[in-house]
């Protein structure tokens, strides 16, 4: 009996060795196998937050991007001066996107800082709406919101960074008027490269437009963002002229600009106005965009104290509908 038992033990030992060796080979192959590939289109992270630049006093200028699918982006803050100039020179009426690329709409608030603080709250309200309604962004669309492109001037009237409410806003008319300008006392909406002059006009006042076009870091940040991402169209929120204005520079009004002005105005029930003629302005941001072939409109709220959210939401919907039906 003992020899048979010995043979049986040898057989069991060899069987165990074979099983262990097989498991070892399988584990070794698995450890060297490439990780499974997850399709990028299946990943959705909204919003993507980017600091596109710094203000005169060093505050972040934030951009928040919402997409229907995850798309690859690069940091606009790292774009070199050469690449920016090259990108801008190559736009000239062509966004650089084909019909299969995501259509990128940019919304900008607060270029006049605390003086038009309600335009910043409107931008934040839009962001809150996108958070609650992620499906609002159609397939193959990208929406970016820059809520406050002049954060130093907003801080002047609310005394805090980032989000605020109307209760935080100063009631001093002198503080509010001074907060139209950046920390260099420059009107940022006179610092862009369309008919730029060192002095410009606001109502009956002469204002500083900077030492040169894009002399101010806030204007540079917006310029570089546009150069990097080349949006399909740009909407600026202001107050309080109660209208939607087209943009134009030396080449006149772009046809698409007229289309989106009329679409937004009709849906939001603001008057549509082709040309701002209350007084002469130079170096406006939306007019600079016209000069490089990017459609841009300015939406002026009816007061400095309200955001008229329902009206503007309908205007935004109209733009999405327009670009959803149009091949650029």
Q: How would you describe this structure to a colleague?
A:
The protein is of the alpha/beta class and 328 residues long. The protein folds into 2 domains: 1-33; 40-325, 3-Layer(aba) Sandwich (Aminopeptidase). Helices cover 37% and strands 17% of the residues. It is built from 9 helices and 10 strands. The strands form 2 sheets. Strands 1-2-4-3-7-10-8-9 form an 8-stranded mixed sheet, with helices on both faces. β1 and β2 form a beta hairpin.
Short description:
This protein has 9 helices and 10 strands. With 328 residues, the chain is an alpha/beta fold.
Which helices and strands, and how do they pair?
Blueprint: H1 2-31, E1 48-54, E2 60-67, H2 81-91, E3 103-109, H3 117-132, E4 141-146, H4 151-158, H5 173-178, E5 199-202, E6 205-208, H6 217-229, E7 233-239, E8 243-246, H7 255-268, E9 272-273, H8 285-291, E10 296-301, H9 309-325
Parallel strand pairs: 3-4, 3-7, 7-10, 8-9
Antiparallel strand pairs: 1-2, 2-4, 5-6, 8-10
């Amino acid at each position: 009996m003992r020899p048979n038992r010995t043979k049986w033990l040898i057989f069991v030992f060899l069987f165990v060795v074979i099983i262990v060796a097989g498991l070892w080979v399988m584990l070794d192959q698995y450890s060297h196998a490439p990780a499974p590939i997850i399709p990028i289109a299946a990943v959705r992270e909204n919003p993507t937050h980017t600091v596109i630049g710094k203000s005169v006093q060093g505050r972040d200028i934030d951009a928040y991007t919402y997409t229907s699918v995850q798309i690859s982006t690069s940091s606009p803050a790292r774009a070199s001066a050469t690449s920016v100039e090259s990108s801008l020179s190559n736009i000239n009426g062509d966004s650089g996107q084909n019909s299969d690329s995501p259509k990128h709409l940019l919304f900008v608030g607060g270029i006049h800082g605390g003086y038009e603080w309600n335009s910043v709250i409107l931008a934040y309200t839009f962001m809150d709406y996108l958070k609650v309604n992620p499906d609002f962004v159609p397939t193959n669309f990208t929406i970016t919101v820059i809520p406050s492109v002049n954060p130093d001037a907003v801080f002047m009237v609310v005394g805090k960074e980032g989000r605020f409410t109307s209760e935080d806003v100063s009631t001093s008319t002198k503080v509010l008027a001074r907060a139209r300008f950046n920390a260099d006392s420059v009107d940022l909406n006179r610092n862009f490269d369309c008919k730029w002059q060192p002095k410009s006009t606001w109502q009956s006042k002469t204002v500083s437009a900077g030492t040169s076009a894009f002399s101010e870091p806030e204007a540079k940040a917006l310029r570089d963002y546009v150069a990097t991402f080349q949006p399909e169209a740009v909407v600026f929120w202001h107050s309080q002229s109660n209208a939607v204005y087209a943009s134009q520079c030396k080449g006149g009004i772009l046809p698409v600009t007229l289309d989106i002005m009329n679409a937004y105005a009709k849906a939001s029930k603001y008057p549509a106005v082709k040309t701002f003629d209350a007084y002469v302005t130079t170096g406006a941001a939306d007019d600079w965009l016209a000069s490089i072939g990017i459609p841009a409109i300015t939406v002026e709220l009816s007061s400095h104290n309200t955001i008229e959210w329902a009206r503007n939401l309908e205007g935004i919907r109209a733009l999405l509908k327009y670009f959803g039906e149009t091949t650029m």
